[in-house]
């Protein structure tokens, strides 16, 4: 399953796996794909360094990359405290009332929230890059589109390719103009932040818009047949995220959350602003319903919403409050119905891809007779 891009990066299969878990990223690369570690939750540079050290020791010399969350324009001098001060008291009260309604206990005295999205902040993200560029990463991806120009230049000076996610052909063209090397066309079905266009429509539109720039297809892909379809649409690989959440190497914080993912069907997700303030596909829960209810206060813009709900999400996860317990995940969750190793997932993907290609070849051969 090789393309021009996968050959350039030295990987056996054109499968790019995004994950917040170092063990999953390393296993993806060892299996012949390209593991990409999500950095958004690393607020301390030493923590990121620790996990990159671990990946280096367990990746068997295979290539891997890093995914950050950076705004395209520099935003300097804004602290987390400055942003916290912008959160209305009414929204804080809504959080407290919702948690009280479901009997969610407080964190222990002195216990710090383990879930806090601050990686979007200029200085936090740049600190992550200061660490990452000391390692032999081969790819830097940005979930918020094109990173600042100086970051792109810094990556290129080190021989690191830069990728950016796009939800429309217009966004993809902006990435191309900004010097990006790879566009990830992320469809509406994907987990996390998405646009409004489904993958089957988006992928060929983006391929045509930025040709000859390589495109990775993302969203709704969880089988070899779907990978074959993505490549047939012109993509040079696929970008998979949700599929790894139920692998044995993943480190989800709650056994009950794993059970919910394994039991979920493709219709059990919702695109909601409840988590970060931007539309993000996630499991539908009574928490997302509360925020999406028109009688409530409504969500705040990014990054205010993420900071507002950080401690609440930590409490929900720690105490496994099932009605509120969720996570970002795509519609492909309907196929995630068993815990398997990363290698087992890869074996299934590659076998399915081969069967799909063989089937198309047989059809093409008969139709040409």
Describe the structure in your own words:
This protein has 369 residues and is of the alpha/beta class. Helix content is 42%, strand content 13%. The protein is built from 14 helices and 11 strands. Helix 2 (22-30) links the parallel strand 1 and strand 2 (34-38). Helix 8 (169-177) packs parallel to helix 9. The mean pLDDT is 92.
Overall, the morphology is globular
Number of strands: 11
* Number of DSSP helical runs: 14
Portion in beta strands: 5-15%
Note the run of SSEs as H and E. Answer: HEHEHEHHHEHEHEEHEHEHEEHHH
Radius of gyration: 20 Å
Poorly predicted regions: none
Round the mean pLDDT to the nearest integer and report it.
Answer: 92
Derived structural class: alpha/beta
Distance between the termini: 27 Å
Main beta sheet: 8 strands, parallel, barrel
Strand order of the largest sheet: 1-2-3-4-5-6-8-9
Helix content: 40-55%
Q: Short description, anyone?
A:
The protein contains 14 helices and 11 strands. It has helices at residues 4-9, 22-30, 45-58, 80-84, 89-101, 122-132, 149-157, 169-177, 199-210, 224-232, 255-263, 286-292, 304-318, 342-367; strands spanning 15-19, 34-38, 64-68, 139-142, 161-166, 182-186, 192-193, 215-218, 238-240, 269-272, 280-283.
List keywords for this structure.
369 residues; 13% strand; 42% helix; globular; alpha/beta; 3-stranded antiparallel β-sheet
Describe the protein's topology.
Layout: H1 4-9, E1 15-19, H2 22-30, E2 34-38, H3 45-58, E3 64-68, H4 80-84, H5 89-101, H6 122-132, E4 139-142, H7 149-157, E5 161-166, H8 169-177, E6 182-186, E7 192-193, H9 199-210, E8 215-218, H10 224-232, E9 238-240, H11 255-263, E10 269-272, E11 280-283, H12 286-292, H13 304-318, H14 342-367
